[in-house]
Design goal:
4-stranded mixed beta sheet; Immunoglobulin-like; mainly beta
Length: 164
């Protein structure tokens, strides 16, 4: 006879487990929102709850984090991508770090299946800007690119994608 494994679950939209309700390595589900949660142990004694959308095509937006270390000044280095058949619009909050210099910017991208439309705004920098942002459609993906001014620039960010 097969063993049935039941994870902790909740059917109340907008609720999430806490480190007090999950053991390290334990999985929980929110059936109303379609989220899967995992408690993981992070070095330094800090636990975190990781949230994954069970089906990213259901519902409104998705927040996805990314981090890329750029080691050259080559133009148009890929820092994020997503299937453009799933999302029409995405908003990015981007942070670039190069040595002791910092830049933060917001980027809004939209596509029509052929062309990408992009605007960058709310840019601030501790000294001069560290890079420029662009986007293109490549294959079945919308690709976000950065052209860094300096080698060894770290690009971190979050993307909010709006489902088609």
């Amino acid at each position: 006879m097969a063993t049935i494994v039941k994870h902790k679950r909740n059917a109340v939209a907008g609720t999430a487990p806490t480190t007090a309700t999950l053991e390290v390595g334990e999985i929980a589900l929110n059936t109303a929102d379609g989220y899967v949660y995992l408690r993981r142990f992070v070095t330094g004694g800090v636990d975190e709850i990781v949230r994954i959308r069970a089906n990213p095509l259901v519902g409104g937006g998705e927040v996805i984090a990314f981090s890329t270390a750029l080691t050259t000044t080559a133009a148009n280095q890929i820092v994020d991508s997503f299937p453009y058949a799933d999302y029409r619009t995405a908003k990015y909050l981007i942070q670039m770090t190069g040595g002791s210099s910092y830049q933060s910017t917001e980027v809004l991208v939209m596509h029509d299946g052929t062309d990408v439309y992009i605007t960058e705004y709310a840019t601030i920098a501790s000294s001069s800007t560290l890079g420029t942002v662009s986007a293109v459609l490549v294959g079945s993906s919308l690709v976000l690119r950065v052209s860094p001014v300096n080698a060894n620039t770290t690009v971190k960010g979050q993307r909010i994608g709006i489902v088609l």
